[in-house]
């Protein structure tokens, strides 16, 4: 039996204890306080003073942040670098204008400002990429073509390169060379470790998403980064019912971090307003219009994107199969060109004579068959009670099945008269063609 190993050189064992997050750097806190504005000052930015509306200015800021995020995904940049670039972008627009030049600050597009901000952030956060790779990513994201081939001698390439290298000094002067920022993501991780919830996946992801979504808004211009981190933890713990312990003096955990509950609630209300505004829009269309347009406008991944989202949850895949003859899915229903009015108790009459002509032309086109049919239209039948919900494709398929059944019955009667029950091969072939057509045709 080997002798026991000596452990005299090892430190004595002691229970693990969690360290408090580091206190904010006084110098960085004072520098950050210079970039904190009121909501009135935020609504009076240089771009708004030059004639742009508040809503349009907010939307332009969000587009610039989305540009940074898209380039960051393409270049595989860390989230902290993207957050730093977003802070530079937001701060620049508090001194520069998107409408016209001001003093030594030229008029730049919001994509150009975002590109310069990201270029500086990669150097500050020590996650640099080759300038050529960044310019190619800028061109691809700006032109919305991720597979775009860019030559380093092309006009677009040199346009972006000159813009970044020439206006980098302008960005530095506008930011007052204040490039070191306290990232709320770093402080969030320290908070999670301090209170022992860093392994709680739901709380960690929810807090991280809260702070990341805050990059798309001017929240960094209203409250400090430490307050944003505390607000993210507060919102995540409140959503999942996790209670964090108080300190030794009996103070709530947020007060122990030097943050007032008033500022935390202000940050949460600001983010909640942004979530509601975003959830009421789907590609610029109000949600009320989308809800009236019918189902099928969403996907499974959109069910849990926004908080309290009024999106219409799409039906299950099996609910969209309404045909008994084949597996053809329902198509989106067409809206009438003219509004309907009630005339002599009939609510199907069009509002004008032109509307009657258009509806008559539509009715005359409905009995036509698809290109894979035999060219003979099925007998017209009167459809009652279906109205605008009538699907021409389903009706044609039903009529095909009826015609096939009639032919089969006629063949069976002929077979009984001849003393045999065998079906001709031509009939079986016709049935097979109908079934295959129903499965392939959309």
From TrEMBL:
Q: What GO biological process terms are annotated to this protein in UniProt?
A: regulation of transcription by RNA polymerase II
SUPFAM superfamilies listed in its UniProt record: Cyclin-like (SSF47954)
Please name the GO terms that the record assigns under molecular function: cyclin-dependent protein serine/threonine kinase regulator activity
| Biased composition regions of type Acidic residues, renumbered to the chain | 433-442
Annotated ranges, domain Cyclin N-terminal: 39-180
Which branch of life, at top level? Eukaryota
Chain intervals with Basic and acidic residues compositional bias: 1-11, 383-400
**First and last residue of the signal peptide:** none
Region of interest (Disordered), ranges: 1-25, 317-442
State the protein's name: RNA polymerase II holoenzyme cyclin-like subunit
**Species of origin:** Friedmanniomyces endolithicus
